[in-house]
Amino acid sequence: MNRWIDVIRPINGIMGIVATIVSAIIGTGLNFGRFYLSVASAAIIVFMVISAGNIMNDVVDVDTDRVNHPDRSLVKFPEMIQNAKVLFIIFFIIPIVLSILFISPIALVLVAVAEVLLITYELYTKKLGLTGNITISVLVGLIFIFGGIAVDSVVRMFLLFGMASLANLAREITKDVQDMEGDVDRKTFPKRYGKEISSVIASIFTVSAVIISFLPYYLKIFSIYYLLVVLVSDIFFIVSVYVLFGDPERGQKISKYAMILGLAAFFIGGLA
Structural domain boundaries of the chain? Predict the structure, then answer.
């Protein structure tokens, strides 16, 4: 079981579930009772698509992971690879069915687009460096749009889409800085332009996300309670920028905590 947990990496999926539910709360407050089936379906869909992406990543990257991530299950237990491929297919098909049955045609289109982007990323755009980073970051931002679709409230989600995409783009570049030595077959941004320039670019994206984070309060979308929590998140983001230049791995971890705090701020903003 622990082997499969390592492959699926459920923490990422759980964060996706939280983001979906937060989007529903932002769209309707706590009054999404009539949408409970579509919200539950959306949460399951997001978890499964994220998990499918993690599975495909480990299958495609099994060779480079021998250098970058030698402790991953598919590296240590190659007999799991075939079953991982089957699980990937299951995790891709079920979201399509759920979106048709319980949400809407628009949700189906978004799921299909997300799955195509994931496959394209793993097979092609991941090797193109910044293009791949942008692809993944757009997918992260689309979770908020998808949650809004589940409750028929999309407009205010576009601001959250921008914030989440920028913050994640910075994190993706930082992860590539961390993996520079093992990325022998990828033209990542850090491999093309070096660690220092990449760290500067990641910092610019992070600061941009911090600046945008004030807009929901300024535009009266969220209350002062959102602002208080998002300020803590922003502090973590700024610290991650400072740490990034000396220790990319630690900077990346701090930015992940900042994103979790950002989710908490969105949640509180949706309630207050």
Answer: 1-154, 155-272
pLDDT tens digits for 187-238?
778 888 888 888 889 889 999 999 999 999 998 888 899 999 999 999 999 9
Rounded distance between C-alpha atoms, residue 21 and residue 27, angstroms:
10
Structure tokens of 167?
Answer: 């913050």
Q: In terms of residues, how long is the chain?
A: 272
Residue type present at position 235: I
- For residues 199 and 255, what is the distance between their CA atoms, to the nearest angstrom? 13
* Gap between the Cα atoms of 262 and 230, Å rounded: 6
Can you read off the two tokens belonging to residue 80? 């799991």
**For the domain 1-154, what is the CATH code?**
1.10.357.140
Q: What is the pLDDT of residues 122-145, one digit of tens each?
A: 888 888 888 999 999 999 999 999
Q: Return d(Cα 143, Cα 145) in angstroms, integer.
A: 5
C-alpha neighbours within 13 Å on the C-beta side of residue 227: 11
* Angle between the N-to-C axes of helices 195-212 and 157-178, in degrees from 0 to 180, rounded to the nearest 10: 160
Residue type, position 60, single letter: V
- Residues lower than pLDDT 70 in the chain: 1, 181-186, 272
Confirm or reject CATH 1.10.287 for domain 155-272, answering yes or no: no
Amino acid 193 reads Y
Closest by CA position to 40, among listed 162, 121, 151, 145: 151
- Between CA 232 and CA 132 the distance in angstroms is 29
CB 149 within 8 A of CB 161: no
